[in-house]
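FORM 12-B: Structure-to-Sequence Request
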């Protein structure tokens, strides 16, 4: 059986170091807001090239806290609009609506699956305050046109970097391409904790100070609350695990690129559309997503051959019950992507014979 993702195998590579890290935290008697977090924040800011990184409880909170902080700073208010790609994981949209901001869905580019910069300006109104761009599947989504539109209309550019740790654009890392970025370290992400974890990165000192308080009940000083904050702290034990795993993230990216390049070079079934790669350094292959009109049949064929695949994602946010108010909207490119995508197994611990097997079975597929 070729698993879609073998987390046990991924983390067992670092078993000794992870156990030492856990022991260190257990023995310290200090479990929140301590040295492990401080070290991780320094390490992760340095990895992204930003001045600041703040650990938070998860990736959704990272994004929520960015918008909440902009509201506290008086830069946004209830009812303001945020442009967001129509095809994304629901967390991107929740971060907006949870702050009583309005998501304005914009279609992606049909080849990269990322927000189409050509279509942003038409969606901008007097209420638009930000663009939340998602580096979907691990591919950078920022380009000069996006930056120019944001500058022209005075919009904050916020990155959803949940899937793109280490992706580069013009030599700069994901997380350092806009005004602020949210990152997720959910176990299955390229940089994964052994539980929930997330971070905000930015070069904005005011924003950092505000989020520092907001993640901890709105308080800088114990029992003095200046905002109605959240409890969204990154546990010491998770920070300790992340300090171990961050050391190996570049190996992980390199290994994923090997698998992706093998798939790109060898999958040649005319029923399958391969993902478009804008640049090698811009894609870290959180997911390797193909498209086919025969998804049901292909997925069934692969299961029969012992190959597990997943769909990211089967239902777009505007068609979810949670967003009934948008259910009647039509986004044909987004809907087609959701109807056709299929994610193949990819990870740093994939064996060569597994890659060969996946390609062979995809090329053998004949619906
Ligand atoms: C995983 C993910 C999130 C949310 O991260 P959590 O840590 O699970 O809260 C947000 N956006 C995207 C695109 C994601 O893939």
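FORM 12-B RESPONSE
SEQUENCE OUT:
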């Amino acid at each position: 059986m070729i698993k879609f993702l073998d987390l046990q195998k991924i983390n067992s590579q670092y078993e000794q170091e992870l156990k030492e890290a856990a022991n260190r935290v257990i023995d310290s008697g200090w479990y929140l807001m301590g040295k492990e977090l401080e070290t991780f924040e320094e390490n992760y800011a340095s990895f992204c090239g930003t001045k600041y990184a703040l650990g938070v409880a998860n990736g959704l909170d990272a994004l929520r806290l960015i918008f909440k902080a902009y509201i506290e700073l008086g830069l946004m208010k209830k009812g303001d609009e945020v442009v967001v790609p129509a095809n994304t994981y629901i967390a991107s949209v929740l971060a907006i609506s949870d702050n009583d901001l309005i998501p304005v869905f914009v279609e992606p580019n049909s080849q990269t699956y990322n927000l189409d910069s050509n279509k942003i300006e038409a969606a901008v109104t007097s209420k638009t305050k930000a663009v939340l761009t998602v580096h979907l599947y691990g591919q950078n989504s920022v380009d000069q046109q996006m930056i120019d539109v944001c500058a022209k209309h005075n919009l904050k550019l916020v990155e959803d970097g949940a899937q793109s740790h280490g992706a580069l654009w013009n030599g700069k890392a994901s997380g350092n391409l806009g005004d602020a970025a949210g990152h997720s370290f959910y176990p299955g992400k390229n940089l994964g904790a052994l539980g929930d974890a997330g971070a905000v990165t930015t070069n904005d000192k005011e924003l950092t100070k505000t989020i520092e308080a907001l993640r901890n009940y709105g308080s800088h000083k114990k029992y003095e609350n200046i905002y109605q904050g959240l409890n969204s702290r990154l546990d010491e034990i998770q920070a300790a695990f992340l300090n171990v795993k961050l050391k190996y993230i570049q190996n992980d990216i390199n290994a994923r690129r090997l698998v992706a390049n093998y798939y790109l070079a060898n999958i040649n079934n005319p029923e399958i559309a391969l993902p478009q790669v804008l640049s090698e350094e811009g894609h870290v292959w959180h997911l390797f997503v193909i498209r086919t009109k025969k998804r049901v049949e292909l997925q069934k064929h692969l299961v029969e051959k012992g190959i597990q695949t997943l769909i990211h994602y089967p239902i777009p946010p505007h068609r979810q019950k949670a967003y009934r108010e948008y259910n009647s909207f039509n986004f044909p490119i987004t809907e087609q992507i959701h109807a056709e995508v299929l994610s193949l197994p990819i990870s740093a611990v994939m064996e060569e014979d597994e890659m060969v097997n996946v390609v062979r079975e995809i090329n053998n597929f004949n619906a």
